[in-house]
Design goal:
about 170 residues, mainly alpha, three-stranded parallel β-sheet, two-stranded parallel ribbon
């Protein structure tokens, strides 16, 4: 597509869908949403063979909007009304509209062929439009997860498969 592509994560962005929207020109996330290639439960099940470690995995994954923005995984956070988006749908819609317009206004400055070329480059690198920022963010996130979770149990075939899949995507 030679048109700007902007994804907005409204609630839970995870698994293959998370990988799929990573090729957009900009990734925005609602203030109370999360975005990760694996759920905390899935992460805990793979690393510890026990889903009871999901809270520990969630903390280590840093999959909340402020952390994802800081790490460069997403490009912007859409503010939500007090109590969450469901408390004031009109205000939520207004905030989405404003943030989306800002992203599209920025992207409209690029020629269509440049958008496509940048998208291919970001897809090939696996890190989005700001490749170096995202790469640094993912590496920092990996180090944080390792530090928080400590030494995992021996790797399973499923874990090796997921690691290989992620390695292909990220390299």
């Amino acid at each position: 597509l030679k048109t700007p592509m902007v994804a907005i994560i409204l609630g839970e962005g995870g698994s293959g869908g998370a990988l799929g929207i990573a090729v957009c020109d900009r990734i925005l996330i609602m203030e109370n949403a999360y975005y990760s290639v694996i759920s905390p439960e899935g992460c805990a099940a793979i690393l510890f063979k026990d889903r009871a470690h999901a809270p520990k995995a969630a903390e280590a994954l840093r999959l909340d909007a402020p952390n994802l923005l800081k790490l460069g995984v997403v490009d912007g956070v859409v503010k939500e009304p007090l109590g969450g988006a469901q408390e004031d749908p009109a205000a939520t819609g207004s905030n989405i509209r404003k943030t989306l317009r800002e992203a599209l206004k920025e992207l409209a400055k690029s020629k269509p062929d440049k958008l496509v070329a940048d998208r291919y480059a970001s897809y090939d690198s696996g890190f989005g439009h700001d490749i170096e920022r995202r790469k640094t963010g993912f590496l920092q996130l990996d180090a944080l997860v390792q530090k928080k979770l400590g030494e995992p149990k021996p790797r399973s075939a499923k874990q090796e498969y997921l690691e290989n899949l992620l390695a292909r995507y990220l390299h």
